[in-house]
Amino acid sequence: MKTKEYSLFTAITMIVGTVIGSGIFFKSDNILVYTNGDIVKGILVFTLAAVGIVFGSLTISVLAAKTKNPGGLITYADEFSGHKTACAFGWFQVFVYYPSLIAVVAGVAGVYMSMLYGFESTPETVLAISLGFIVFFFGMNILSGKLGGYFQNAATVIKLIPLFLIAVSGFIFGDVNTAFNEAPKAASSFGWLAALAPIAFSYDGWVVSTSIAHEIKNSKRNLPIALVVGPIFVLAVYILYFVGICVLVGPQEILTLGDAHVNVAAQKIFGDIGAKIILVFIVVSVLGTVNGFVLGFIRLPYSLAIRNMFPASDSFGIINSSTGTPVKSGTIAFFICIAWAFVHYSVTKLNLMPNSDVSEIPIVASYILYIILYVQVIKMYFKKEDSLSAAKGLIIPTLAVIGSLIIIIGGLANPMTLVYIMICVIVIAVSLVFYKKENSRV
Asked: Which residues, 6+ apart, have CB-to-CB distance to 61 below 8 Å?
């Protein structure tokens, strides 16, 4: 019997550590530009953007509490929506969602490492560093079921340090009344809602913890708790950091400085070495995100294989008795990720997606797929299954759907969104052809 490797704390840190990457450090100026320096509206934007994960996680927790089978979202789709939906979900996650995000986030780590050590961040340098990180984290997570969890716990705690330091320093050394009262008045229109687009994507990655559901101790109890506590904690951290840095530096100054406001805040707290310290924390923060995605990704081909929804299922649906991990599943996931790393490099090198990158391909499509699961919970409520309350079975799932639509609408602002969706549609179509072919043999 498979040993339960992960604690409730690890499940929570997977959510927190994967969602909180480097973006939050540089989002404050973007938010204030859209809100015209209004801190209150900035807080409202963070809250609105969080609706998608807070209510989404509350909804998914209903499904998580009903099963202990491996696979996370694949399992939920399989048991509550059908085999075809599960196959489509799984192929999308294996061939698009996880590898594209890992490739891009590892690339971001490469950029920050170049900055930290004074290298010129050419596409080739970033690719080389990112490949090194990909090899390291896949190796660590494939060879040990525990090491990846330990790193995730440590990285999450470390990345929270600068966020809390800035938040607390703002309230201690800044002037709260001045920051709020002297902020320029926002326009009376709803133009500030455009800030939802750059913020919404900062919340992605919260579903990763579901991929290790079957390896969490007392998962039917602990995973729902993690899915509730994790996203709410992320929202609280984001708001505390945003308010703290606004009070510490000042909204008008942040608008003037742009991304440089982070260095100014760091210098006020740490002195001249502040910028380097913040860079170190950012690198750890990004690597925590990479590890969280890898930790979840290596199990997905296995989750499909045990359902006969993946090529060579007999081979990939095996847990290695020595490592306690699906080694072959992790290996194929590694090679898919390497391929995406080169795709990301080519796109960046040739500037094929100006002001964008391949990580945006799966975001909109993933929230479309999440809606399918939210609707299943609503259906359970109307079928009077398990005596779901109106809050859990109707109100919360409906708010989750609205939150997903907010993110989808925000994504439509990108002219490449339709191209991204077409790529996802092709992958899903191939998965359904494969499923039909395999099913016809039965």
From this structure: 223, 224, 225, 227, 228
Is 124 or 108 the better-scoring residue by pLDDT?
A: 124
What are the beta bridge partners of residue 216? 6
Phi-psi region of 69 (alpha: psi -120 to 50; beta: other; left: phi over 0): beta
**CB burial of residue 324 (10 Å; 0-12, 13-18, 19+):** middle
CB 112 within 8 Å of CB 284: no
**Buried (b) or exposed (e) across 354-373, using 16+ Cβ within 10 A?**
eebbbbbbbbbbbbbbbbbb
* Cα dist from 189 to 34, 194, 409, whole Å: 11, 11, 18
What distances in angstroms separate CA 128 from CA 108, 133, 280, 336, one per listed residue?
Answer: 12, 9, 19, 17
Cβ-proximal residues to 137 (8 Å cutoff; 6+ apart), any chain:
148, 287, 290, 291, 294
CA distance 148 to 135: 13
Question: Cβ(9)–Cβ(153) under 8 Å?
Answer: yes
- How far is 181 from 202, CA to CA, in rounded Å? 28
Report the pLDDT value the prediction gives residue 139, as an integer from 0 to 100.
Answer: 94
Which one-letter amino acid corresponds to residue 320? N
Residue 340 neighbours by CB under 8 Å, 6+ apart: 99, 100, 102, 103, 358
Cβ-based neighbours of 339, under 8 Å, separated by 6 or more: 99
- pLDDT tens digits, residue range 192-245? 766 665 566 667 667 776 766 667 788 778 878 887 888 889 889 989 999 999
Which residue(s) pair with 6 in the sheet?
216
Report the C-alpha gap between 351 and 160 in whole angstroms: 33
Closest by Cα among 203, 173, 272, 171 to 49: 203
CB 278 within 8 A of CB 64: no
Q: How far apart are CA 22 and CA 11, in angstroms?
A: 20
